[in-house]
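Posting this for the archive.
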Amino acid sequence: MGEAGRLPAGGDWAMRNASTRGESHEAQQTVRALIDEAAQRWPQAVYACDVEGRQRITFAELREQCAQVATLLRAAGSAPGDTVSLVMPNGLQTLRLLLGAMHGGWCVNPVNLLSQHDQMRYVLDHSDCKVVVASPEWADRVQGVLNGLSRPVTLIVTEADALELPAFKREAGARDAQPAAPQDLALLMYTSGTTGVPKGVMLTQANLAANAQTISAEHALVPGDRVLAVLPLYHINAFAVTMLAPLAHGGSLAMPPKFSAGAFWRQAVGTGCTWINVVPTMISYLLEGEAPPRDSTQAIRFCRSASSALPPEHLRAFEQRFGIGVIETMGLTETVAPSFSNPLDVAQRKIGSVGRASGGQARVVDGALQPVPDGTTGEIGIHGPHEMRGYYKNDKATADAFSPDGWLRTGDLGHRDADGFFFVTGRIKELIIKGGENIAPREIDEALLQHPAVLEAAAVGIPDRHYGQEILACIVPREGMTCTEADLRAFCLEKLGRYKTPGVFRFVTELPRGPSGKVQRLKLVDLAA
């Protein structure tokens, strides 16, 4: 096993070299096909359970419940092809509704529960949903939003962990819908940018099914594997990785109501998880807590980190503290989460890299959108069966998101090395340009994280009349530890040199984050005043 942790050997998957959407058999599947095939192959196997041992759903039961969800949505006045929004926290009922709607041919819109009132109103209005399903604690707020819309929308209220669906009545003579086609919309998920209104990412049945197959193959997952589903289902990572991927390989998920650093290891061990799927923020919190006995976590083969960059210091600290190997990955809502992954074989991975292209192709281009040689920094582009169809009712944003030859522009800066591994250094819009020199914020972050009193750090450029931009560093100190601005400046001078040392430091209790856990750097600019 060794210090690096438990990671089985693994190889490349053929889909890594797929060049166009729809080229592979997997890309032509649907979510309905994944569910039906799983129910046929593993009818009595558990697909999902809670962490208290109160509920469990087998694959056969899931297929039956999907039919019940379709009947419920029809009774609510909607039909396949319509959008149904969910305003619910995690729970097996939430999962049942999402999968049941997609199985029946509806497009689901899981609403970010961290949304402000105006954002939620915008999403529910813009999505053209015909039905909203909300948990009781959200019902009044949702109804207030719906009352202000110009179209009628049916509200269904149910607990996120309810054992049964709400009562419904099957219409006389009602027939089951025709199966959804691979190119039908299955998911409308709104991204929360740092500026402007959220954009609705349109993902098809084929997009979702293709990535479920990719994730399963990339991580060599098999029917006996179980993942702890701590990320919220309105987050693309949880939606694709913890909810959909087990359908492709016959695995299962254990779902707590929410992430709890204090309960995490008890839940993972108690439910028999063989892998865990988290974001870097969660790793940071876990490192602050107690480590479980090594013999209790022997079954956990690896920890998958995604959604934002994992500082190498945190990766090494996690593996040393918990004895579980980390696979760093990266993706976008626009690509159904993962588009890059490090290999399972710990000897082949590269710490600090998001890995090689997974499920499609990736490249690096210059400002003229022309490919650049390995080792050259530019914008990362992605192409494959996991690419979104576009942004809902936003033709301009859709056009801007793709290059003329059809590659998705990620807006991420980085480079590829000679072995095909990609390294992300920041966002184009977040690049700090000081005195004409480009500085990647992540370089500043990683230097600061090496200081023992720094729990989290994020750098951003702020206006400066001499240099154009100066560097602002926002610091979340570790509990029980203190450091001064002078301490950090001296530390950065040693690690980064004078030019890259932040000119301004601010101590904060938390960093602003989007639903995927990524730091929203541009919101930090206001702290410079």
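Residues 431-528 form a domain with the GMP Synthetase; Chain A, domain 3 fold (CATH 3.30.300.30). The longest strand covers residues 454-464.
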